[in-house]
Specification:
The chain contains 13 helices and two strands; from the N terminus they run ααααααααααββααα. By secondary structure, it is mainly α. The structure holds Phenylacetyl coenzyme A (FAQ).
């Protein structure tokens, strides 16, 4: 039993809290909330923030290799946006009492997770297109749901982030459309990117509902309003016809259209690979954490200078 639950007024407070959520009200930072609600939000929002910041690395590596000035400007703006998303999200988690230092420490020591997708390498330029279209597309599907969530600061951060992610997705889709209709080499490059990013993107939505340990609590308190499998299915249904229309293949030999439900049914995800990546054994886990650690160390003097300046002003 949690400390809070020994309070004799706990059942009344919990009932009022749940009634507010049922009425569609937003829960704000100073409001009463169950400790588990706070903990779940800190876990999820901080992991989301880490994903945005670690997510800058696979694309950031290509800024110097963009094929022309327009593509370079777009990629620079996108990577910068992801840093901004990390900031909004760290701030949202801070409203729940988590400090920036402890959240970053949890990332750097491997205690906190970040999205599995960013542990895959970016090996060709059209991976920028696949990330924009598939990865940002999957992120938007999940985040459009989270924009409706019961916690005010997270929900408002999501509204703003989704607006920006919309541009990220469009620039990636535009790239893949152009390459799919380009030279045979360009089409093959686009297909290769889709082949490598398709399955890791489906894994972004998390384990099957039956294996999702957090979903019950998150759904009960209006944080998740759609399940992992439901969002994954929506994503597959949206993407498959668009890829086929471009003459691109989906790298899933078991993929089939189910007339009755109107769904594109995927083959089984390699869950062993997913859990290996989540546990830190993916192709790029070590390199991603090393890059974050170096950035953290190199930025120490900036943090110290800011702290000294703030003290001087007081
Ligand atoms: N990777 O019980 P569930 C982006 C963990 S943002 C790693 O189902 P939950 C923008 C999960 O944490 C992408 N770990 O978990 C961008 C849990 O372990 P825990 C990030 C995963 O929370 C684009 C355990 O498995 N988006 O891409 C993953 O109910 C391009 C059991 O799972 C968000 O973070 C995974 N894929 O559902 C940036 C959105 N899936 O923590 C740059 C907010 C599951 O108990 C470039 N988060 N796990 O130890 C969410 O919506 C949820 O947390 C889910 C997972 C849906 C990710």
């Amino acid at each position: 039993m949690y400390g809070q639950e020994t309070d004799p007024d706990y059942p009344t407070k919990l009932a009022e809290f749940e009634a507010r959520i049922a009425r569609g009200e937003k829960i704000e930072p100073g409001d009463w909330m169950p400790e588990r609600y706070r903990k779940q939000l800190v876990r999820m929002i901080s992991q989301h923030a880490h994903s945005e910041v670690v997510g800058m690395l696979p694309e950031g590596a290509w800024i110097t290799r963009a094929p022309n000035l327009r593509r370079k400007q777009v990629l620079l703006a996108k990577v910068q946006d992801e840093a901004g998303h990390g900031q909004y999200l760290y701030h949202a988690a801070e409203t729940l009492g988590a400090t920036r230092e402890e959240m970053l420490q949890a990332l750097l020591t491997g205690q906190a997770k970040y999205s599995s997708i960013f542990n895959y390498p970016t090996v060709t330029w059209s991976d920028m297109g696949a990330i924009g279209w598939l990865v940002d597309g999957a992120a938007i599907m999940n985040q459009t749901m989270l924009a409706q969530c019961s916690y005010g600061p997270y929900s408002r951060a999501m509204v703003r982030i989704c607006a920006e992610e919309g541009f990220h997705k469009k620039q990636g889709q535009e790239m893949i459309i152009q390459y799919a209709q380009g030279t045979p080499e360009q089409k093959a490059m686009a297909q290769d990117s889709i082949n490598r990013f398709w399955w890791p993107t489906l894994m972004m939505f998390g384990p099957h509902d039956s294996a999702s340990t957090n979903s019950d609590e998150l759904t009960r308190w209006g944080i998740k309003t759609k399940s992992n499998d439901q969002l994954r299915q929506e994503f597959v249904n949206e993407l498959v016809p668009l890829l086929h229309a471009l003459g691109l293949e989906v790298p899933d030999p078991d993929l089939r259209y189910d007339e009755e439900s109107g769904n594109w049914i995927s083959g089984e995800i390699n869950w062993n690979e997913f859990w290996q990546v989540v546990k830190g054994n993916g192709p790029m886990n070590a390199a991603r954490l090393q890059a974050r650690q170096e950035a953290h160390d190199n930025g120490r003097w900036v943090r110290e200078a800011l702290a000294a300046y703030a003290e001087r002003d007081v």
